[in-house]
Specification:
mainly alpha; MetI-like fold
Length: 269
């Protein structure tokens, strides 16, 4: 009976994994299709990758997407980390109020945030473009960083920084060498979430950008009404970059840990 349940569980999990990964596999396969058809594979070809790299509009969208995501991640991570640390040292009432305010952009529908930003920029007569999109991305990424770091700060000993300063550290050294390493997993998680949210955003970006500035999501939306297999090549390239990034993120710490363990073993011998 138990063996039968395991087999059924395995089949169920297999179908579940196939359901989630089938669209990705489909996209990768048809990015090498020799024809424009999205349902019939006519043969292997790299023509859509060539057209993708030769398409100036597509390459501009990739550039704006990556630059916006990297800058928004960097700024929101720094600001979010400082804010979260500051809140952890604040009074309980102030901390509770700020946390509730911080949750509003997360719980708020994106369309409401997008319209609010559009009206805000229009009221201030700010010309929409790359800067307005970048500021919007920083704005909605910061709450996710704070939300990722705050639980880590709650688990820390409140006297840790004071103990470090008693042992000779300056406030800056206590922050950089004691507090930040302890909350590093939360910072990394917040940065990854911020990067993903910025890279993937469509609704807010669509409302706050202009002057020929668009990201990949906006580009895909504008191409959705006409068949262009080059988008499969672009999607495959993004999947490859993200996969390599995740592999590096997971393998580098493991390799560094093994290397440190070997060095320690040699010293003890």
């Amino acid at each position: 009976m138990k063996k039968k349940k395991r087999i059924l569980s395995g089949i169920y999990m297999g179908f579940l994994v196939l359901f989630f990964y089938a669209p990705i596999i489909y996209t990768i396969i048809f990015s090498f299709n020799d024809s424009r058809s999205l349902t019939r594979f006519a043969g292997f070809s790299l023509q859509w990758y060539e057209k993708m790299f030769n398409d100036r509009t597509m390459m501009q969208s990739v550039f704006y997407t990556i630059v916006t995501a990297v800058l928004a991640t960097a700024v929101s991570t720094v600001v979010g980390t400082i804010t979260a640390i500051g809140l952890s040292k604040s009074k309980a009432v102030l901390r509770a109020i700020v946390e509730q305010v911080n949750n509003l952009p997360i719980m708020n529908p994106e369309i409401v945030t997008a319209i609010g930003l559009l009206m805000f920029y229009s009221a201030l007569h700010i010309r929409k473009g790359f800067i307005t999109m970048l500021l919007a991305h920083i704005m909605f990424c910061i709450p996710y960083v704070i939300l990722s770091i705050s639980p880590k700060l709650r688990t820390l000993d409140q006297n840790l920084a004071d103990a470090a300063m008693d042992l000779g550290c300056t406030p800056w050294q206590a922050l950089v060498k004691v507090i930040v390493p302890q909350i590093k997993p939360g910072i990394v998680s917040g940065a990854l979430i911020a990067f993903t949210m910025s890279f993937d955003d469509f609704v807010i970006s669509y409302f706050v950008t202009g002057n020929g500035v668009s990201n990949i999501s906006i580009l895909v939306y504008t191409m959705s009404k006409r068949v262009n297999p080059s988008i499969n090549a672009l999607s495959t390239l993004i999947i490859l970059i993200i996969s390599v990034f995740l592999l590096i993120y997971n393998l580098v710490p493991a390799i560094a840990e093994k290397s440190a363990a070997k060095k320690l073993k040699r010293r003890t011998e």
